[in-house]
């Protein structure tokens, strides 16, 4: 059964279709006008919206765009007359799922509804998969959970988002996640670094230009706002944008229009803007380096991204992700990291955040002699980090080492990332006396995530008193 809104101007046809839909087990609400359609859309969510194009013509209001924004998890089926097929086809490009030419057989409509429901199911499953994969990669600390929940909540809207965080924290990754989870997911996602280009070049990249606008402008060229129409534009390091360009960006946000360099023609655009910066924009505003009105336009939804050192629980997932990425790029088959290299990676503070970790893993994948990343595969500046050893009286170190080697088999030279995570969880549980709530807090993850990991790695839930370390 599906929840259906049937917006049909022809009362007789609407009544007949409602009866057919009821016989097929669907719950249907009917509307005869655009006003009624908007009223029903404002109070309830529907899976299928059957929309008569005659209702769309009642005003200049963009009903399809409104539905896609207000009911993102729904499909639109259009009914139209044969002379308006061209308009129906254009509506498909704007988000409608399919159309039916009147008169049509009710069995065709029922088949279309079934197809649309299956498409919704696939779309929801794919988005949930993307969300789960994103969470696995980013980590599960309280700060990350808050960030992901906010990003997921704002994604289906068209609200402008401002991402704040240190350089290299993965702001573009978050921006792309918001785009992928939005209704614009199948439209362009274009990114530009506002600090990497001089003022004139930045403007030409954003707004485009016409032939002769400046020296070297040999022909007309669209800017990012035109190229990314109906999609998402990501403005990285927006805090470094020149003031004159800020004025033009404000016009885009307020009026949804651009003008190419060298001409006065106004071009309407429909883009979502996600901006990011590592600067304190409040300070920049006080110093007159950033416009107050632009800040308030950009700061509709603010998301703070914590640095990597505050979410080290995500390190194993990020390492796995980057190893897989560079294995594909460089045709390598790296499968493990030895214990010394893992210790170095786990005890580094990453001032360059996720971007620095990515560069480290890229270096290691290239430099590895076989399928294992060892300490000497890492950049030289990391190799000074050595695994600490207990300070023992003279002669005791060798005795302890000998006794240990007799008491237990030698550990392998390398362990997997999963094994590293299992050991970390087990050691933390032991130190916390088996208290899962305290252990989860120490690990920076939720108790439910800890429980899931314990089940995954078959970690027991209680420990003998002699195992518990005294702090």
Automatic annotation (TrEMBL):
Q: Which SUPFAM superfamilies is this protein grouped with? A: CheY-like, Homeodomain-like, P-loop containing nucleoside triphosphate hydrolases
Q: Set out the biological process GO terms recorded for this chain's protein.
A: phosphorelay signal transduction system; regulation of DNA-templated transcription
* Modification sites for 4-aspartylphosphate: 52
Membrane-traversing stretches? none
* Record's keyword terms, sorted: ATP-binding, Nucleotide-binding, Phosphoprotein, Transcription, Transcription regulation
Positions of the Response regulatory domain: 3-117
Short name of one Pfam family: AAA_lid_14
Where's the Sigma-54 factor interaction domain?
Answer: 137-366
Q: Which domain of life, per UniProt?
A: Bacteria
Entries under InterPro entries matching the protein:
AAA+_ATPase, AAA_lid_NorR, CheY-like_superfamily, Homeodomain-like_sf, HTH_Fis, P-loop_NTPase, Sig_transdc_resp-reg_receiver, Sigma_54_int
- The answer to whether keyword Nucleotide-binding applies is yes
Q: Name one GO molecular function term.
A: ATP binding
Query: Entry's CDD domains?
Result: AAA (cd00009)
Instruction: Give yes or no: UniProt keyword Phosphoprotein.
Output: yes
What name goes with this protein?
A: Sigma-54-dependent Fis family transcriptional regulator
What organism does this protein naturally occur in? Abyssobacteria bacterium (strain SURF_5)
């Amino acid at each position: 059964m599906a929840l259906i809104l049937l917006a049909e101007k022809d009362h007789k046809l609407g009544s007949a279709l409602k009866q057919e839909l009821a016989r097929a087990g669907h719950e249907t609400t009917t509307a005869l006008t655009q006003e009624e359609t908007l009223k029903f859309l404002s109070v309830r969510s529907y899976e299928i919206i059957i929309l008569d194009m005659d209702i769309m013509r009642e005003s200049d209001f963009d009903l399809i765009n409104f539905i896609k924004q207000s009911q993102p998890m729904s499909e639109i089926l259009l009914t139209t007359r044969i002379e308006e097929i061209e308009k129906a086809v254009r509506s498909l490009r704007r988000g409608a799922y399919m159309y039916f030419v009147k008169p049509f057989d009710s069995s065709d409509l029922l088949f279309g509804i079934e197809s649309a429901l299956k498409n919704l199911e696939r779309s929801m499953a794919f988005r949930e998969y993307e969300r789960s994969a994103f969470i696995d990669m980013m980590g599960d600390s309280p700060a990350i959970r808050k960030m992901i929940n906010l990003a997921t909540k704002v994604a289906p809207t068209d609200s402008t988002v401002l991402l704040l965080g240190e350089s290299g924290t993965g702001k573009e990754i978050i921006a792309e996640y918001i785009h992928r989870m939005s209704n614009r997911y199948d439209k362009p996602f274009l990114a530009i670094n506002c600090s990497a280009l001089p003022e004139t070049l930045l403007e030409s990249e954003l707004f485009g230009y016409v032939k002769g606008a400046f020296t070297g402008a040999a022909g007309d060229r669209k800017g990012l706002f035109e190229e990314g129409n109906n999609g998402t534009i990501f403005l990285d390091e927006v805090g470094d944008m020149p003031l004159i360009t800020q004025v033009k960006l404000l016009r885009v946000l307020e009026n949804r229009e651009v003008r190419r360099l060298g001409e006065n023609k106004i071009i309407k655009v429909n883009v979502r803007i996600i901006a990011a910066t590592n600067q304190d924009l409040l300070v920049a505003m006080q110093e007159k380096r950033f416009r107050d009105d632009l800040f308030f336009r950009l700061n509709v939804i603010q998301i703070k991204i914590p640095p990597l050192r505050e979410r080290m629980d995500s390190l194993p997932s990020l390492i796995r992700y980057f190893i897989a990425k560079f294995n594909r790029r460089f045709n390598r088959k790296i499968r493990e990291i030895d214990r010394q290299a893992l210790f170095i990676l786990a005890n580094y503070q990453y001032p360059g955040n996720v971007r620095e970790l990515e560069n480290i893993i890229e270096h290691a994948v290239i430099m590895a002699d076989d399928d294992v990343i060892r300490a000497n595969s890492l950049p030289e500046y990391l190799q000074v980090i050595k695994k600490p050893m207990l300070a023992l009286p003279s002669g005791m170190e060798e005795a302890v080492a000998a006794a240990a080697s007799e008491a237990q088999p030698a550990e392998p030279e390398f362990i997997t990332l999963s094994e590293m995570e299992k050991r970390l969880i087990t050691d933390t549980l032991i130190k916390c006396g088996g208290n899962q709530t305290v252990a989860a807090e120490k690990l920076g993850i939720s108790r439910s995530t800890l429980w899931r990991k314990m089940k995954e790695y078959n970690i027991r839930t209680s420990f003998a008193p002699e195992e518990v370390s005294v702090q």
